[in-house]
Amino acid sequence: MSSLVARRRHPAAIAIVLLLGLIITGGLYAAFAPKNADAASSSTQAAAAGHKLFLSNCATCHGLAAAGGDGGPSLIGVGAAAVDFQVGTGRMPLASPGIQAERGTPQFDSKETSQLAAYVASLGEGPAIPASSLTSGGGDIAKGGELFRVNCAMCHNFAGSGGALTRGKFAPNLMDVSGRHMYEAMETGPQSMPVFNNSNLTPQDKKDIISFLSNVKAEASPGGWSMGNLGPVPEGLFAWTIGIGMLILIAVWLGKKAA
User: With contact defined as beta carbons under 8 Å apart, do 92 and 62 qualify?
Assistant: First the structure.
């Protein structure tokens, strides 16, 4: 009996337990480590492909190293979100110089846009492409409306229909803009738009604003014809040209009838 207990407590048993522990640990590491390596490799490959696209399409203005060039600003540190917004909305590559880069048909598909964004992101830290949970709505509509009226309505109109700015520029209509691009615009401040970083508007605030605009887009106009939600200008134009015009015609008709 004593010899059996001694064999059970043999030092080799401890070595075997340690060996089994190392095997299990190594197996777990081998199971998870390749995924991280693949992700890093995929990101590197995307950045390399984006670099080729950049040299072929963007380097003329932004420089071979994206540090700025003939008419194009430096892209170092602007982040992936800026590229996704500018390229994804067709504003870049810029067809010709102008007062303001307008939205157009994207020249790159989503994969190529992601590759360009990965390359620019590799040049320096900047705003990343937002998660879909922040751009798909579901926020506080009432709070979003209040934040929009305080921070955005002076340029984009009370209902996001856009408006004129100085020197021939304009704030675009937001009704056909995706939540993702709205979020990226707030993060990066394209052209005349200010940057709303997380110190100005938290990610939840941005989500609330996007939710408000999505609700404006979807809801019906309780007052009838909205006239594009452009405010008093089209309403005044309608009143003067149609309303007063009709009154003048009726007055003339009554005058002729009386004569």
Answer: no
